[in-house]
Design a protein that fits this description.
mainly beta; 258 residues; Pectate Lyase C-like
């Protein structure tokens, strides 16, 4: 396999002054090949992303500390079958973003600590067979977990890889067949009081929400809803979620047509 590992006597530390090219601390682009392990690194102050998986599959991002990057702490896009586990993702433009242009997206996000990012804690665009499990998500600027439709509205080819995920319009396929379980989401919507949700689903189907805990948190800025399901969603299953004291208006806002 391929390794970027900072577990030795001197950890890998990448900050702004070391970043060039796309502006990411670590960028596994389409020519990198599959089967990477990116682990135990300290990554800070990137002009764009801390870790970007653009063209790799069957790879693991584990136990990294990623902070103060201007775009995403970790982004996995275009290719799938990756695992993002046990990372600390703080104070970035966004936390962890999964963005897929086709009907793919099989990626696991488990056991990460995601806090104080300016936008969403975890965002999934156009994902399929995604698992979001056991993450601690707190005090992010917008939604804690945001699941929506396809990220790209142009064909992706080897010659033209989009610079960043953009939510598509109209013809785009929804996220589907996603499990969101046993996550703790606290005090979302720090960017604007009563505007964003701890969990927000839009343009999605076949979603299981199970065993998640959502709280509004302390302070003056609190989430709008603990769980907000837009009427563009279908086939949403909810089991054993704890939503008490989660939103200012209602604990659950459900406009879904199952």
């Amino acid at each position: 396999g391929n390794y970027i590992d900072g577990a030795g006597k001197t950890p890998n530390y990448v900050s702004l002054k070391d970043v060039w090219g796309w502006g990411d601390c670590i960028n596994l682009h389409p020519c990198s090949g599959d089967g990477w392990v990116v682990a135990n690194n300290i990554l800070k102050n990137a002009l764009r992303n801390g870790i970007r998986l653009t063209g790799v599959s069957k790879s693991v991002v584990s136990n990294n500390y990623v902070s103060d990057c201007k775009d995403c702490g970790i982004i996995a896009c275009v290719r799938d079958e990756n695992t993002i586990i046990g990372n600390s993702v703080f104070r970035n433009g966004a936390g962890i973003t999964l963005a897929f242009p086709w009907d793919v997206g099989s990626t696991t996000v488990v056991g990460n600590n995601i806090s104080e990012n300016k936008r969403n804690g975890i965002m999934v665009c156009g994902g399929k067979y995604v698992i979001i499990q056991g993450n601690s998500i707190s005090h992010n600027g917008e939604h804690g977990i945001f699941i929506t439709d396809k990220a790209y509205d142009i064909p992706v080819t080897e010659e033209r890889w989009p610079e960043k995920p953009i939510r598509g319009e109209g013809h785009c396929s929804p996220s589907n067949r996603i499990i969101v379980s046993n996550n703790a989401i606290i005090a979302s919507s720090q960017r604007a009081h009563n505007t964003y949700d701890n969990i927000f689903l839009r343009c999605s189907s076949d979603i299981l929400l199970e065993g998640n805990i959502c709280y509004k948190g302390e302070g003056s800025k609190k989430p709008r809803y603990g769980l907000n399901i837009a009427n563009t969603c279908s086939y949403i299953t909810m089991r054993d979620n704890v939503l008490e004291e989660s939103g200012e208006v209602d604990n659950l806002h459900n406009e879904a047509a199952d």
